[in-house]
Design goal:
homodimer; alpha/beta; 15 helices; 42% helix
Chain lengths: 440, 440
């Protein structure tokens, strides 16, 4: 039974009604943001806001200073090259070598307006390579907006929840799709949004082998680059390196975002990396469909040209500088974001102490790391009910159903929660646990 | 007969061969840029470069200073709202009122990554409103990259050259398309890229009336806002105003670019303006296709979200400041770009004195203005031959065939030509005219 909850039930219900969504459990991230902001405005109560992956840190000052200098040099009037300024391309290539131990030419390193634009372009062009291969395959759970991209492009996709297919089981599951001949790509994020699971090297090897066997392109979303804090991935040129499928196939593109790892979300700058082999691969269908030769040219001179004709000129200087300083060992970007892992450790403990469970708890035989996201469930409540009830206790998140997960639960993002809110979080969870005594 | 031309014929031919295009007359803008840069690098000769619409002026310092201030305030780490920061939305609404005398709510003023992203989104959503209306209609000549957008989206389009259909003749021509029932929108730029013709108010009225009669959306590209220097459009709140179809229909979107009028091309920031009526129009097909209600929501929460999730946060502050100062009368942005008109007047005279003709010469009964572009032809030469031969004389441009024109000729852009090159231009044109004595 709910007692006198921190947020009056009547206001929560009123604001949910005003949102005009059919079911709160299906609300999008931005809809939950809007809902919680409106409840906060009406009540003056600060939520523990875990619904959106907003960087909670100031932006990389290396980036800000470089961007200001570029603006002082009047880059604002000049169209940037569509494939990126040369210094960004070469520093990105070095970054991939030094932090992943993967060789790629600067040619294949192409800035995009956030990794959103990179994935949009990659989805479009991978689906244009062969006529019969018209369907994307997501290894879910995943970032909901990528499915929206499929909707906007009117492209077909399939997906499955990796929960029950970890390790060698992944091979058979993937092959059950790939063997049909209609799959054009395999998409996943690593570390994973929303579950923070990380595919193991054995799993990445399976994906790479099958990409070669069936000639599909792996699209690896590295939005949380090097943020598996269980490993120290922060030293340029020194192992261990960020795990990647690029060790096991040459049929890959990756997206590296500046939003989280450099806290640079506002400037909408990411980089799409295309393997040397794939960049120059041709196909008749691609030439017919986009009237251009080669995968790299299709991405740059057709899709990115048509979408935005390049990326903010000054932000390219920012990203070039952040990569350069990281490459030179003069900017420890991981040190700045480790705070997310520290907060996750504490917050997970608060949830676990109050009857909650972690949904995606392990990478096969190891506990998942503490990072940007974690997943929670509560005994006896489906995710819509849990999301709804937590709103009364001043806690917000998004449902896993939004992410292609087959499990009932919520994604919790730590970035936007301040340490000075932990006491509130504990009090509210205590009351929730008393009101819904799951373990009785 | 070509004499000893300024640029050795052998080098021009060698670089054209290296470009691997089937026909130089069909080369894209960026391909010509690449070609001329490579010839310049090989010969040390500076071309009169008229192929690309690069701003030849420094960026608006109002914008640069506001952008630097925003970066100092750490906006780089924060996701911008997808529909734009409030100050930009309200200043854009004021700008449309003060310089066009059109009312639009801030809600419908949405920043985009250049007008490229704005047109991409508008093309996609207008084509999704009704199932049978699946074909765009361009009033050509036009910006070639918008046709590339159609290619990338795999959307259908038709077009016609307005040359022979000015004035009242435009009505019958448009109606011959619209009456078939498959047209979803009407697209044009005003002032026109490449011809610098401006549709008259009578013509805009025809377009507006037919947009209502057939329920199609007019997409008005104002990339060269207020740059018809025959009129003084520079005074906020004082007529005359920038001509627009919005006086004659409520079925419109417009794109206002910062690239040319504020010399802000590098930052990739434009603004899409959606009429109050259209913003809230619903249709069953739109809801089915994009799972969203309303035109404005489809643009913002589906297409722009999926393409780039918003626009550079700092650049939004720049554009807000440029609009605000223009609105307040403290920034005469037209004074800064009038130089283009002055240069066009002189350059056109140099071409006309050497046997060239202006292809698009009049707006019905008035000579076209002097502005960012003009169009040229030469007796006895088709456009491919003219483009090719001018390269030997150190002069570059793009062919009108690229722009949907039915006329033979070239588009010349004045922006990137410096006044200190005019003597060279004259000498080269004199020699060209001697070598190809058109009027003999």
């Amino acid at each position: 039974m709910m007692t006198n909850t921190p947020v009056p039930a009547s206001i929560v219900d009123e604001k949910i009604a005003a949102l005009e969504v059919e079911e709160i459990g299906n609300a999008s991230i931005r809809e939950i943001v809007q809902l919680v902001s409106s409840i906060e405005a009406a009540t003056g109560i600060s939520y523990i806001r875990m619904e959106m992956g907003i960087p909670g840190l100031p932006p990389s000052q290396v980036g800000v200073e470089a961007e200001i200098e570029a603006l002082r040099n009047n880059v604002a009037s000049k169209y940037p090259q569509i494939d990126g300024i040369p210094s960004l391309k070469s520093e990105a290539s070095r970054f991939v070598k030094l932090f992943m131990n993967i060789d790629v030419r600067p040619e294949g390193c192409v800035p995009t307006v956030g990794s959103m634009e990179g994935s949009y372009a990659a989805f479009l062009v991978t689906a244009a390579r062969e006529k019969e291969k018209d369907t994307a395959l997501f290894i879910d759970p995943g970032f909901p907006v990528q499915k929206q991209q499929m909707l906007v492009m009117n492209q077909k996709y399939l997906s499955f929840d990796v929960f029950d297919f970890r390790g060698e089981k992944l091979r058979e599951k993937l092959e059950s799709y790939l063997s049909k001949g209609n799959i054009c790509n395999i998409i996943y994020s690593n570390p994973n949004n929303p579950s923070w699971i990380c595919l193991t090297d054995d799993e990445l090897k399976i994906i790479g082998e099958l990409a070669d066997k069936y000639d599909v392109v792996v699209i690896e979303d590295l939005a949380y680059f090097a943020m598996d804090f269980r490993l120290d991935l922060s030293k340029p040129g020194i192992p261990p390196y960020q795990p990647t499928v690029a060790r096991y196939t040459r049929n890959w593109v990756m997206m590296i975002s500046s939003s989280k790892v450099f806290s640079y979300a506002g400037q909408r700058i990411g980089i799409l990396i295309i393997s040397d082999l794939l960049y120059h691969r041709h196909s008749q269908n691609l030439s017919d469909r986009l009237r251009v030769h080669g995968f790299g040219n299709a991405i740059i001179h057709r899709v990115l040209y048509a979408m935005t004709s390049g990326t903010s000129h000054s932000a390219q200087y920012a990203l070039a500088a952040m990569f350069r300083h990281a490459n030179n060992g003069t900017y420890d970007f991981i040190a700045e974001v480790k705070e997310y892992g520290e907060k996750a450790r504490i917050m997970k403990q608060l949830f676990l102490s109050n009857g909650f469970e972690i949904v995606y708890a392990t990478d096969i035989d190891k506990p998942v790391g503490d990072g940007f996201y974690f997943t929670i469930s509560y005994p006896g409540m489906d995710e819509a009910k849990l999301l709804y009830h937590l709103l009364f206790y001043g806690i917000s998140a998004i449902s896993l159903g939004n992410t292609g997960s087959s499990k009932q639960g919520l994604r919790a993002c730590v970035s936007n929660v301040r340490r000075d809110q932990f006491a509130d979080l504990e009090t509210r969870l205590n009351q929730f646990h008393r009101d819904f005594p799951a373990d009785l």
